[in-house]
Amino acid sequence: MRLKDKVTIITGAAHGIGKAYARRFAEEGAHVIIADIDAQGGEATAKALVDSGGSAWARTTDVRNFPNVQGLMQETINKFGRIDVLLNNAAIYVTQQLWKGPVEELALEEWDRVIEVNLKGVFLCSKAAIPIMKQQKSGKIINIASGTFFSGSGNMPHYTTAKGGVVALTRVMARQLGQYGINVNCMTPGSTMSEESVSEEVLKRREGSMDKRAFRRIETPADIVGTALFLASADSDFITGQLLVVEGGGVMH
Questions:
Q1: 35 assigned to some structural domain
Q2: What pLDDT, in 10s, does the model give residues 196-206?
Q3: Predicted TM-score (pTM) of this structure
Q4: How confident is the model over 64-86, as pLDDT tens digits?
Q5: How many domains is the chain partitioned into structurally?
Q6: Active-site residue numbers?
């Protein structure tokens, strides 16, 4: 088991790709903390992992609220004694009615809503976890960006800006935290069939990405979780400040 007894916090892990990360990490022996604003979904995911023989605990978390995030970190320490991995996965995307359109028509409230979760949330979770990891002299922070950062595609100015900020924040933290033995890396899943119910519109959107890839097929959560596992494991101990693109060749950089 590559993550045996590693205490791992995954934000936004009640659904979608986050849930897939949680399942894979639990299979690899991690103690998984499901940190999600959806209390019921988080509890259901944790129960499923425990029923499958894994170690999981759900803690309702709003990544926009720093006292709430601080509580998550402190309760994790109280329960497990350390934090080995923080996977900043929580984000607003198209499954949460993400607005699309020109920059000049983007409402200020919509800009703030997405930036607050997708960028500020990563900052707040990292800010709360870093002092703990510094004291341990070890830790892995994994941030989730987006291929829209490279192409500017998707007509999502606020989403793409937030994800670009995540890449920048990753590099700054990697520079600052290397001396403490803390790895900070980033990865970009492509358009992934992560929905729990697949409508015709969803299928069409996911199929629309196929022609841009070297691998001409729909991406699934199973295509992504191995990269996250690599970044969380000892196999990546000498890698930091990097952006790994997991998009089937849709983006090459």
A1: yes
A2: 655 566 556 66
A3: 0.93
A4: 999 999 999 999 999 999 999 99
A5: 1
A6: 159
